[in-house]
Amino acid sequence: MMRIVVLLFLGVLATGFVVTAILASTSGGWVWWILVALTGLLVLLGVRDLLQKKHAILRNFPIVGHARYLFEFIRPEIQQYFIERNTDGKPFDRDTRSLVYARAKGADSHKAFGTERDVNAIGHEYLLQSVAPVAPPTSQFRVKVGSSQCTQPYEISLMNVSSMSFGALSANAVLAMNKGAEMGEFVHETGEGGLTKYHLEYGADLFWEIGSGYFGCRTPEGRFNPETFAAKAKHKNVKGITIKLSQGAKPGLGGVLPAAKVTAEIAEAREVPMGEDCISPASHAEFSTPRELMHFVARLRELSGGKPVGIKFCVGSRTDVMAICKGMLETGIVVDFITVDGAEGGTGAAPLEYEDHVGAPLTEGLMLVHNTLVGAGLRDEIRLAAAGKIASGSDIIKRLIQGADFTFSARSMMMATGCIQAQQCHTNHCPVGVATQNKRLMRALDVEDKGHRVYNYHRLTVTESAQIMASMGLTSPTQLNTRMLRRRVNLQSTRSYASLFHWLRPGELLDDAPGSWKEDWDEADADHFGEHAPLHFEEPLGVGIEPALVREPQDAVSAPRIEPRDSAKVRPVHSDVTRPEGRPGAEN
């Protein structure tokens, strides 16, 4: 009925306009003919809606049904600008984005009238300040990256630009980040899309990421090319090498850049042919076991002239993490650093199922890797980095307490470059020119201005992290421990990370693995990835599963108090028990 009424109404309206236009032909009738044309177009649109079979709404509600698609199209903007509260937006809320934008501009990032967050909500976390704060440092902290097997160690900032490839980002975005990193003396990680001229333009310190496609150092068949790698890795701006095993947005999934999107510049940077799909496999061809991975690490370290070589992954199986540690113990080869990518990370696009349901969040993954390294007696040799949704000074400190030595950030650096969280990264239609190869869109991104903004954002955020530590009474990140971060576990009480989680002692996995770790540690094998051991019993899924790392919060009223395990108390992340001098490498 609705469709007949709409078309009849438009028909009558068009007829009326025609009659009026004829009668007024001697005095401005052309205006009425315009209305006739517009009405006629609406009638044709209505007929088209009735005849098409793809959209049921348009077939039942011709013309007016298009309003639904219009509102759906502008829904994200309506949601972001008119409906969301300052603390509601996802992935980053308005308060966080405003903080990044203000610091990038060098403007005041303070906020008046108190927090809008529910500090009594279960899961809320906070840092403990001291009644005796100290003066903040006059220079930024640096962390030494490089094991005893590394001959060219590097001192890295507490916050750095995380992996984002040219191709995913525009040339102007890469240039702006590179300029900011050079000005602020922090690392610009390349992403797996190759070491490009844009990464080298301003002379920033680089960590070159090598993914499963070996872009920038590959043979025509897609295998690793040691000669090309050695020539590029010895460049003075390349300070470290990262082997990417997986990433937070889509762990365990490869990628394909369609041939239509492979521009001449991308083909040159990635050393792939034009007119063909650019394929990044799900796994590496150069190794398939932890033992082989360690030999590949040693090979890259030798080819690069002794520069730090690390691995990056989103944590999945706990057995895999332990197998990597066993690979280091059995080969005697250690990585110089490990970057843990959280499942909540991801600057590019990925299947929704992967974004929402695959991989460990950064908190769990970071603490697992730290704990395993400590238990295997490897933590002193290896620096640990956290990557995933790190935007503020408090984010940095939280990750340091959870086990990291330094951090990487991607999306906040994009926002400092101009990103407005339009979430159009995969469409090539980024409205601000950050994540697109459309030259018309990217020309709006001024490299000089945005480079200064990246520098400002980094400087002010790292300075704020030092100020917070000073308010906690600390003069160095090495003094942070797990008692300084607390989480609300119910409406009546909060608990510190020291008592919430089971922290292993140095070498504990080697001496006598605790019960909740023993089965996975025994199964872990330097010659296998994955959980390959047969089950000793049949059990329905979901029954009797004991959390391996997390101790569930006990009821504050009925549960007995958890006492420290020994005279050393509950071990903090960087305990004086294992390092009397504190965490090595972090210096003013």
Automatic annotation (TrEMBL):
This is FMN-binding glutamate synthase family protein. Belongs to the glutamate synthase family. The lineage of its organism: Bacteria, Bacillati, Actinomycetota, Actinomycetes, Micrococcales. Residues 562-588 have a biased composition (Basic and acidic residues). The keyword Membrane applies. GO terms for biological process: glutamate biosynthetic process. Keywords: Membrane, Transmembrane, Transmembrane helix. InterPro entries: Aldolase_TIM (IPR013785), GltB (IPR024188), Glu_synthdom (IPR002932), YerD (IPR027283). It comes from the Bacteria. Residues 549-588 are annotated as: Disordered. PANTHER family: ARCHAEAL-TYPE GLUTAMATE SYNTHASE [NADPH]. Coiled coil: none annotated. The chain crosses the membrane at residues 30-51. Residues 150-474 form the Glutamate synthase domain. One of its GO terms (molecular function) is glutamate synthase activity.
